[in-house]
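Example: 2-oxoglutarate dehydrogenase, mitochondrial.
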Amino acid sequence: MNQCRLRSLARIRRSLTLGLRGTDQHVLARQALRTIQTTSQRRGVHDLDSFANGCSAAYIEGLYNKWKRNPSSVDESWNELFSSNDWSSPKRSPLQVSHSRKYRRPPVERIAVKARSGERTASGGASAAPAAPPSDWKNIDDHHVIQAIIRAYQSRGHLAADLDPLGIVGPKKRTSVDGTQRHAAREVLRQHFSYIFNDLNTVFKLPSSTMIGGDQEFLSLKEILDRLERIYCGHIGVEYMQITSLTKTNWLRDRFEKPGGLDLTKEEKKLILERLTRSTGFENFLAKKFSSEKRFGLEGCDIMIPAIKEVVDRATDHGVESILIGMAHRGRLNVLANICRKPISDILSQFHGLQATDSGSGDVKYHLGVFQERLNRQTNRMVRITVVANPSHLEHVNPVLLGKARAEMFQRGDTCGSTVMPIIIHGDASFSGQGVVYESMHLSDLPNYTTYGTIHIVSNNQVGFTTDPRFSRSSRYCTDVAKVVNAPILHVNADDPEACIQCARIAIDYRTRFKKDVVIDIVGYRRNGHNEADEPMFTQPLMYQRIKKLKPCLQLYADKLIKEGVVTDSEFKAMVSSYEKICEDAWAKSKTIKTIKYSSWIDSPWPGFFEGRDRLKLCPTGISTDTLKTIGNMFSTPPPPEHKFETHKGILRILAQRTQMVQDKVADWSLGEAFAFGSLLKEGIHVRLSGQDVERGTFSHRHHVLHHQSEDKVVYNSLDHLYPDQAPYSVSNSSLSECAVLGFEHGYSMASPNALVMWEGQFGDFCNTAQCIIDTFIASGETKWVRQSGVVMLLPHSMEGMGPEHSSGRIERFLQMSDDDPDVYPDTCDADFVARQLMNVNWIVTNLSTPANLFHCLRRQVKMGFRKPLINFSPKSLLRHPLARSPFKDFNECSCFQRIIPDKGPAGKQPDCVQKLVFCSGKVYYDLVKERDDHEQVETVALVRVEQLCPFPYDLISQQLELYPKAELLWAQEEHKNMGAWSYVQPRFDTALLKNENESRCVSYHGRPPSASPATGNKVQHYNEYKALITSIFGELTPENKKRIEDRIKKQQAKAKADAQSKPSTKPPAAPPKGGSSPPPGPAPRKPLISLPSRPPRGGKQRSGSAPAPNLVDEDSAARNREPDASAYDGASPSAWKRSGSAPAPSVVPRASASRSPSRKSPSPSHDGISPSTRQESLSKKKSGSAPAPTPTSRGPFRTAPSNTEFIKRRPAKDYGSRNETQSTPGESELDPTKPQP
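Written out as structure tokens, the predicted fold is:
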């Protein structure tokens, strides 16, 4: 600490000690001292409140000694300080040096000062505490304790609730001073536990945070404790204090705490007994008839059926017309019989092992679903009850059910869940153990996924198969996962039927009032083992010893009502015998049933869809050119100027490119997709697209939802404003979940056939986290449950050097699960062969290569007379590839989906000259086109694209085999040999070849060798694998090939350099002189340069340049390849341009790639039409300075004519700060716009 700072401290300290306390000078002095201390603290000074710390003590002592010898020898400020009466010579001994980094404030002596106006205390500013007014402070403190006790019961009373009917887990009762045993222990009351042993007759005023008093304002301590015990520590344990909404918590308090709120009438109790009799009687009857048959009965949790019936009754009374139930296998047969009223004879016939009259594999009886519409006798209203079929994967039905419920709400126009309600029945172990529960829960409040409240009922057996809860979960309750959405959780003892019914009532009323999820945890037990043939004593001996001694819930409740006089013993026995007779009659009827139909157990019928429809008729998928232009113009138009929507500059450039494509009558991938969506919307078909980042697109190609750059929650979607009477279009980014979201979309597609429902993976690789949904629902749902679905999965897939988890969509897995026989050649002479083949397969697998084929494929999904899932492996680099574009003529009424695309170039015109016939699929075709041109084998190698892999196009493949009788047959794929389509197509190629008796050829494999990893993450290895693939098909490049490629590269570079030099200066014009004269005239400003393909001139000469190379590395190079290839639309190779005398006009290199960095080197040869095999040779021969100069493009805004488009105000979960309009864009920064941005 320097001398100046010490003088300042001394001066301030002196002012503080000379009677300035409480004055303005004192306040200023304290602030100045605090500032100096803060600065000193940053520099490492310790013990700031002491005037002289260990670092400055010697210095001050020296000044003091010097002052004593001669007062004028020190500074005036030090003289004043040392001369003051309150100064004493510093001693060495009291000074303590603090060596700790942590600041330790020394004890401050507090000086009591009489408080008066304008004065402060010596502690630094706080007024002295006034004397306590005369009052009964003990009484006030007691009231505060009572309020804390009430709060403790509300927050933690469930910890002491009597929930376990077995008595294994439960609270230990404590005896109070009045002899009453109470459940609440220290874990509930904590520091106030001893207070309950005080005088229990003391009367207290109740706080407003409780409603236990009803109309009474004062209660004794004993009555307060008794009421809280009955409410919170009885057979119901309620968790609701975690809810942040005061309205919700007050509503729940009112329902639980108000005196008499949980009472039931005699008629209601009798109805509960009747329903419990049916629930228990059904299980007893099945146990008697099928003692060793697996049925996964509900014994031990029988009250679940009356609870569900109570939910159904009150829901229909509130206006609900459709109830959807999702559940696992336990108790399913009882739900079908007593909730859905499925004829018991039909259920019993499933035990007889009868032959089915319709096709399919069927499923076990405890997995089946049902769809019933019946009259609810309690409310006299019709209700539709659907139990969704579910595999053994327990909780994975949850998102499927939620998606189906959401779709029904959309069909009914229900925007708040008032007519449709989902109920999900969980198991205790699966509810806490399976991650899909958490994923599904998080959909509850998302705008495009919410179902406005779901009733969750947990059938808590207190054991998972053979695992105790203490080994199956870390949380206290199995329902703790529901706290993430602030759902109230009602724990209830399964052996208290009245408490269960009250919880059911409160749950449905809460859902109706607040449109939020609610959980009922019915804590019971499992009287048998995991199934009826299992022995539970192996693993839970003590538990099952208690279960054997315990009376069933029905008997306990009947004894209770008989004792209360609600029913007599004879009335109860009459109930039991009456239901037994119903079951016996159904048993007799079931014996007369000789066959069964799988279709009678369908859970999602589409009434009216199949009636009068020719399922084998394939409707045309093309549309008119006028429709294409209308959709294209709207899709490429920015928001209208009059709405002052601030659009991102990068988006404006993209829209300008789309406009140019519409003018040129050509479409890239995003425009082709928009044509499919827009045309279906025009025809009244609802289109729904969801997944991670689908609004923009993982690879920034879609941009359906535009965001205002300076205002939050303002978005614009042009596809919402195509036509006045169009169908709704829904596109929404989902949560970061594949399993739950894909299951949701699958359920959405089940509700109605008149919708195109799509889920797009961020990368195709990520679908493996949704494998359970794919395997058990999508792939086999129709075969097991006769349930059709038209859901579309879009999986980005291609090998572009992006590593093992960003390359493969796992084509082989989907093809392996396809159920078409590879050894049977179908009847291709059938006029309906194509439609019949599609109808007989379990799903459709495509790997498309053109936007037009994507357009027709998506429209075909809706135009077919049936529904099949579509698995499409969408591209990545092809999204912007200049060759992957389709002319408008491929979308018109005369066009259709192409299952294969034959070679239409020189090889296809002269098939006898073809030496190799290469079959391929997807993006690898564009690699082969470039390499074939580089190797100058366009006349000897024919390339045929197999667009539809499953079902296999036998008829078209046979035609190609006959067309090239002398050609060697090859299958080329970029995937490894044990992956991709090879294992699927190989036996089917053999079947097609064996069909011809004169055929002796076979198809050979050309691709990467087998590997456990889908792709390499090493760029060098990726290039080497690519080179090996190309060499195996075309051989090595000859010297002539290399010379031709190098000449082409030099010509392209020279042209780019010349264009850059000839481009006029883009500097702004100079300011006019002060004299007011105008500047000299100059050239007119150029229009914005747009990197877009031009239509090939008719009869024109070949321009310099050639077709660019397809992307071999990643999406980055796709943005660099901007030269269009019009002949590629028809399958011709780039080398055919010279012979035809026409070529597309070259385009300007886009700013996103050309000006990415000022020090950027010249593009590598692989980006300019040369293969990786000649990369080193080309680079070694390039001369310095031959790199083309970057050609900037215009950055001006793109304007269009105004329209009457409206805007959507989005309601996000949180408000984020508005973004700066000057933030960098992918096209203006070093980021690559073709890569997914975080």
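The chain has 38 helices and 31 strands.
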